[in-house]
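User: Can you predict the 3D structure for this chain?
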Amino acid sequence: MAKKKQSAAAGGTPATVALTAAGTAYTLHAYAHDPAAASYGEEAAEALGVTPDRVFKTLVADVDGTLTVAVVPVAGSLDLKALASAVGGKRATMADPAAAERTTGYVRGGISPLGQRKKLRTVLDASASSHPTICISAGRRGLEVELAPADLATLTAAVLAPIGRA
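Assistant: Here is the predicted structure, written as structure tokens:
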């Protein structure tokens, strides 16, 4: 993977700017997003020719009143009980989409765990570590970033836990 130079002014997103500032190696993948797509993540996997277990979606949940980011494979779903447990909470529910957008600074379908307006605690599904690289949203629909899961975990201070459900 090559390091990319991005700036917000040059069309970079907050996610790519954060990666560049950290000196993290990544590959940017752009594809034509179809607004009628049923699943943004599955659309990305198909467009990139990557198996859905390597493409991860970013979900925002409310754990005991605190917004928390969950990063799970698009091939499955989020186990809310496992997410709550991973951060020492009792109960998790999906966050209100408007609150997720407002807090992260991204639109639904383009929320990235990187470069968020307000840094939220993050949990990365443990399955990510079984891949040399994974793809996540680069902060815009139709734009994915591929990077090492360890780099994502470091940059987001993520907890690794089995929070995905097949």
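The chain is about 25% helix and 30% strand. Confidence is low (pLDDT under 50) at residues 2-10.
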